[in-house]
Amino acid sequence: MACWIRGCTTKGGKNDAAGKKSLFTARTEEMLQNWRANGIAARGINEFSKKSRICELHFQKDDILRKDVFLMADGATVTIQRKVPKLKEEAVPSVFPSALSYYHTNPINKEKQKEKQNKEANITVKQPDFART
């Protein structure tokens, strides 16, 4: 499982330097339609569907529920950390960083691309000499 957003390198169940990232799907048809209406379909790697997963990096921090609060019979509140984070019903992916460090670049392909550009830059085209002597 990986984040559906083009260029995002988040993989489900994997820890990176910042820790494990959660992936979310649209739980309801209404949520799916809201995401599509927000233009999410243009940001992905293939057709967006109910099974497409989007990582937590693309949501506002307050869109993700990480704790549940319960009101006890005696009026006290108990806060419990959720094992699996949950999106609020009105949450819509809205964070799409444009920083280069956010996007994955394969260093091997990057080096090959530089070599190709250097070769193209060093090519000199000989112009025929049409001057008659």
| Total beta-strand segments | 6
Largest sheet: 2 strands, antiparallel
Provide the gyration radius in Å. Answer: 24 Å
Q: Biggest sheet: strands side by side, in what order? A: 1-2
Structural class: alpha+beta
| Distance between the ends | 71 Å
Number of helices: 2
Low-confidence stretches: 99-106
Helix share, percent: 10-25%
Average pLDDT, rounded to a whole number, is 79
SSE succession: EEEHEEEH
Strand content: 15-25%
- Described by the principal axes of the CA atoms, the overall outline is elongated
Which short descriptors sum up this protein?
two-stranded antiparallel sheet; 19% helix; 2 helices; 20% strand; 6 strands; elongated; 133 residues; alpha+beta
Question: How would you describe what is shown here?
Answer:
By secondary structure, the protein is α+β, with helices and mostly antiparallel strands. The protein has a domain at 23-61 and 88-124. Helices cover 19% and strands 20% of the residues. It has helices at 29-37, 107-122, and strands at 15-16, 19-20, 23-24, 54-55, 64-71, 77-87. A hairpin with a 5-residue loop joins strand 5 (64-71) and strand 6. The radius of gyration is 24 Å and the shape is elongated.
